[in-house]
Amino acid sequence: MASQTIYNPKIELMPRDQLQLLQQYRLRNTVQHLYDHSPFYKKRLDEAGVAPEQIKTLDDLRRLPFTIKYDLRDNYPDGIFSAPTEQIVRYHVSSGTTGKPTVVGCTRHDLDMWSECVARSLGAAGCTQKDIAQIAYGYGLFTGGLGLHDGCELFGMTVIPASSGNTSRQLMLMQDLNPTVLCCTPSYALYLGEALQKQGISPDELSLRIGIFGAEPWTEEMRKRIEQLLGIDAMDIYGLSETSGPGVAVECIEAKHGLHFWEDNFIFEILDPETLEPMPDGEYGELVITTINRTGMPTLRYRTRDITRIIPEPCTCGRTHRRIDRLKGRSDDMLIIRGVNVFPSQIESVLAGLKGIMPHYRIIVDRKNNLDTLDIEVELAPDMPLDEVRTVEKLRSEIEKGIHATLGLAANVHLVQPNTIERSEGKAKRVTDLRKVYD
Ligand code: DLL
Q1: What count of other Cβ atoms lies within 10 Å of the Cβ of residue 67?
Q2: Distance separating alpha carbons of residues 338 and 169, to the nearest angstrom
Q3: How far away, in angstroms, is 217 Cα from ligand 1 center?
Q4: Which helix (H) or strand (E) holds 226?
Q5: Ligand 1 pocket, 330 CB below 6 A?
Q6: Using CA atoms, how far apart are residues 181 and 152, in angstroms rounded to an integer?
Q7: How far is CA 435 from the centre of its chain?
Q8: What residue ranges define each of the domains in the chain, with the CATH number in brackets?
Q9: Which residue in 94, 98, 195, 357 has the most C-beta neighbors within 10 A?
Q10: What is the pLDDT along the chain (439 residues), one digit of tens a residue?
Q11: Is any ligand 1 atom within 6 A of the Cβ of residue 183?
Q12: Nearest residue to 212 via CA among 165, 148, 163
């Protein structure tokens, strides 16, 4: 075991009985804190007939109400917060299902807890203080850039805060500043790898050795391809804005199989998405997370919609925090396009406000040269003749602007003749996802 990579041995190697006692203590505190400081949760707990003092052991978790993305949206922007504005030091914002996004508020304590989770994750993934990290996740409202940034600095690595995009600059930085760790989405890693190959730069000419990749689903095949193109170990990191950001769970370099879930800060459950009953160990279900070490916006039993399973066996690395398997997909219709979370309903809400089109559309997601593409076909209204080029072009660009303003993503909009999009007799199949693992 490479012990120098264990950032917080006391917690990461904590015997399970102690870890469970810590969870129990923090769960009780969190429920009490929410009851006292979040009118939203006080109401929820009252409605569920649960008084904070009834939450005594981890088994009592099951008595607590669930939280879903709609709760955040319906209480936009800060209705579920449990700390006053003067204690909130940062907002992050992620896609809502329609209209308004979801806002997450972090106190100083929350940012510190999050950075520690990222620092532990970096150690687990094989990084050391000597490493130099090029962070090519987006900086800003998205948690990827700032989350990795703070964690890398806390861990003691050198940071290149490149942010996302501008591939030629990324490659230049890689060649000139000799980063040893690359942090970005797996699809962007693949894109960068192919770009290097096209320029005839061999991975041996670079110093990269580890990749910290997440924010979207990927596969073992994709891992192999990235590892081969960049000459690195490609490690999976998981997280979501509603519970912090990246660093909720991570793969360790020793086993490279399953993601250790930082159980001192997050309690996870794997439930049947229909019945909400627990799945037996090892079977796939929806991941539900309760944050037990946050103060600004703790979430009780947050339904992530992500599908995974628990890997029950202890890990060879010695960490006692249990592992979840690589995330397999989602139980809702959320798409992740170039790292951006997109609900088809968001696209629909842009279209709904416009004249000259029909409510018939098709969303086509594909991956070309390892970059996701988004095409949207929309039917023109029968009184909008396609041959009126200028009017149609104006409408098309209005839709593209609307989509960009809502999602922050460029889409190619195609206006098509009335009655050309296939009608469905049942549930409309509006999304075609043609993405393959890699081209
Ligand atoms: O994607 C946080 C993050 C940033 C994680 C950088 C890892 C690296 P959100 O934008 O709120 O947060 O999106 C969260 O992304 O519910 C999953 O569906 C998906 N996701 C995140 N990590 C992984 C992963 C960030 N490793 C949503 N594998 C989650 C598969 C992932 N899906």
Answers
A1: 23
A2: 18
A3: 8
A4: helix 220-230
A5: yes
A6: 10
A7: 18
A8: 1-329 (3.40.50.12780), 335-438 (3.30.300.30)
A9: 357
A10: 444 589 999 999 999 999 999 999 999 999 999 999 999 999 999 999 999 999 999 999 999 999 999 999 899 999 999 999 999 999 999 877 777 889 999 999 999 999 999 999 999 999 999 999 999 999 999 999 999 999 999 999 999 999 999 999 999 999 999 999 999 999 899 999 999 999 999 999 999 999 999 999 898 988 999 999 999 999 999 999 999 999 999 999 999 999 999 999 999 999 999 999 999 999 999 999 999 999 999 999 999 999 999 999 999 999 999 999 999 888 898 999 998 999 898 898 899 888 899 878 999 999 988 889 999 999 999 888 777 889 899 999 999 999 999 999 999 999 999 889 887 666 677 899 998 655 4
A11: no
A12: 148
Is residue 143 in contact with ligand 1, taking CB distance under 6 Å? yes
343 lines ligand 1 (CB under 6 A): no
Separation of CA 186 and ligand 1 centre (Å): 11
Identify the three-state secondary structure at position 91: strand
DSSP 278: B
Q: How many CB atoms lie within 10 A of CB 298?
A: 27
Q: CB neighbours of 47 closer than 8 A, spacing ≥ 6?
A: 65
On whether the CB atoms of residues 184 and 136 are closer than 8 A, the answer is: yes
Note the residue count of the chain: 439
How many Å lie between the centroid of ligand 1 and the Cα of residue 237? Answer: 8
Q: Which two tokens stand for residue 106?
A: 């972090």
217 lines ligand 1 (CB under 6 A): yes
Task: Give the SS3 label for residue 324.
Answer: strand
Q: Look up the pTM and report it.
A: 0.91
β 323-324/310-311 pair status: antiparallel
How far apart (Å, rounded) are the C-alpha atoms in residues 11 and 302? Answer: 24
Contact 45, 52 (CB under 8 A): yes
Atom of ligand 1 nearest to the CA of 213: 8
Backbone angles phi, psi at 368, to 5 degrees: -115, 130
Question: In this structure, what token pair is assigned to residue 213?
Answer: 């990749």
Taking a C-beta distance cutoff of 8 angstroms, is the pair 289, 315 a contact?
no
CB of residue 302 inside a 6 A radius of ligand 1: no
* Sequence letter at residue 36: D
> Can you name the residues that pair with 236 across neighbouring β-strands?
213
